[in-house]
Amino acid sequence: MNLRLVTPTHPAAAPLLAGLRHEYMQVYGPEAVSDLDRYSTFEFLPPSGAFIVLEADDVTVAGGALRRLEPGVGEIKRMWTAPAARGRGHGRRVLAALEAAAARRGYHTVRLETGDRLDAAIGLYESAGYARISGYGLWGTDPRAISFEKRLDGAYDLATDELDRREILVREMLKHHPLDAGLRQAA
Q: Which of 96, 101, 104, 113 measures 20 to 30 Å from 4, CA to CA?
């Protein structure tokens, strides 16, 4: 199994996005599917975002994304595991990688939303230390949406990681530059 940081338009992201579209349509209908087109691709790119896939033999089996929600707060989106690969801890591995990416980007908190019918996702988030919060954003008042939040401890802050080593090198070079304070504030 290999974790990889990719762009949302990379071919490795296509199975994840297609799987999400299919599941959203099956469980919640076309309105939920439209959520996949709501955000710009750029929101899921460094320095404030990340799009991570987990591959087995060059086939995407799981993945998820991170975007900036507000200063100091990241939002986890696009969490998905291929049906044939579920129950093996792949979602937990992707979630941990996204949390680490969020901490490296200076986020002290991450939030996410999931659907009320997605029992495995709810169980994953609760077992990973997420607490239910009041709804937020577009789906905040929808009774089918469940919102979660988790405080990050900062242990991964700017730690080198194979997924975004190049970004970390740039950040390390800028560490003492006056612009760095602004970059950290923007995250």
A: 113
Q: Residue 173 has what pLDDT?
A: 45
Q: In what order do the strands lie in the sheet with 131-133?
A: 2-5, 50-56, 59-70, 73-81, 109-115, 145-151, 131-133
pLDDT tens string 91-107: 999 999 999 999 999 99
Residue 33 confidence (pLDDT) above 80: no
Q: What CATH number corresponds to the domain at position 90?
A: 3.40.630.30
Q: What's the pLDDT at 63?
A: 96
Cα separation, 2 vs 46, in Å, equals 20
More confident residue, 7 or 185: 7
Q: How many domains does the chain have?
A: 1
What residue numbers bound the domain in which 44 lies? 2-186
Instruction: Give how far the C-alpha of residue 133 lies from the chain's centroid of Cα atoms, to the nearest Å.
Output: 18
Give the pairing type, strands 145-151 and 109-115.
Answer: antiparallel
